[in-house]
């Protein structure tokens, strides 16, 4: 598992962009120095919880863009499967209308490098390479800053869908910290009071907020 404060693993892979075009060498490096990125993994195309998540992220895409944040999804499916799913109507379990990039991690190395692959390889007693576990990604979310550093990680098990509003809240916290040099207390939301990272700042906040 890649931890907060470390460099996000670099990759180049095929992806579908704008919901209809395959590119061969998509990379998060294009955002370095320009935008923060929410890079999220999901288990598999044409499944059950996954379309609800991808469509929920699409519904909130204007809110991410308004914050200057790029949104990128990734699974271990092929780019052709991504494209077929994107062309499938919602009424038939598809994700037609999704426009943010979907990366095809067919080698499973991206998910493995980010620590969200649901299994692993090992050598058995015959020195044969064996895979155990599920060869798909868990529901990982990574906030990557403009310098390519991971600032937030959350990983859900396969049946547990994510709350997109929480991802937006995390973005808001990070951007508030960067802009104002304050820290964000428990349950902070955009527009509420933050704290100075001093004993006095904490004391003032607790006196006015904690009963």
TrEMBL record:
Record-annotated Thioredoxin domain positions: 2-176
Entry keyword set: Cytoplasm, Disulfide bond, Oxidoreductase, Peroxidase, Redox-active center
GO molecular function ontology, one term from the record: thioredoxin peroxidase activity
GO biological process: cell redox homeostasis; cellular response to stress; hydrogen peroxide catabolic process; response to oxidative stress
Subcellular location: Cytoplasm
Domain of life (superkingdom): Bacteria
Catalytic residues in the record: 50 (cysteine sulfenic acid (-soh) intermediate)
An example Gene Ontology CC term for this record: cytosol
SUPFAM superfamilies per UniProt: Thioredoxin-like
Summary of the function given for this chain in its UniProt record: Thiol-specific peroxidase that catalyzes the reduction of hydrogen peroxide and organic hydroperoxides to water and alcohols, respectively. Plays a role in cell protection against oxidative stress by detoxifying peroxides.
Similarity comment: family membership: Belongs to the peroxiredoxin family. AhpC/Prx1 subfamily.
Protein name: Thioredoxin peroxidase
């Amino acid at each position: 598992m890649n931890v907060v404060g470390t460099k996000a693993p670099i990759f180049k892979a095929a992806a579908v962009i704008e919901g209809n075009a395959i590119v061969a060498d998509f990379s998060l490096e294009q955002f370095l120095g320009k935008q923060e990125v929410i890079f999220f993994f999901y288990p598999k195309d044409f499944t059950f919880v996954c379309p609800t998540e991808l469509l929920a992220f699409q519904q909130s895409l204007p809110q991410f863009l308004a914050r200057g944040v790029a949104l990128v999804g990734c699974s271990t499916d092929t780019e052709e499967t991504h494209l077929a799913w994107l062309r499938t109507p919602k009424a038939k379990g598809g994700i037609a209308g999704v426009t943010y990039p979907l990366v095809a991690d067919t080698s499973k190395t991206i998910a493995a490098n980010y620590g969200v692959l649901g299994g692993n390889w090992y050598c058995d007693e015959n020195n044969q390479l064996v895979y155990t576990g599920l060869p798909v990604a868990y529901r990982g979310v990574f906030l990557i800053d403009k310098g390519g550093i991971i600032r937030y990680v959350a990983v859900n098990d396969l049946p547990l869908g994510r709350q997109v509003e929480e991802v937006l809240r995390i973005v808001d916290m990070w951007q508030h910290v960067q802009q104002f040099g304050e820290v964000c207390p428990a349950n902070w939301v955009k527009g509420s009071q933050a704290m100075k990272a001093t004993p006095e700042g904490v004391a003032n906040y607790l006196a006015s907020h904690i009963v």
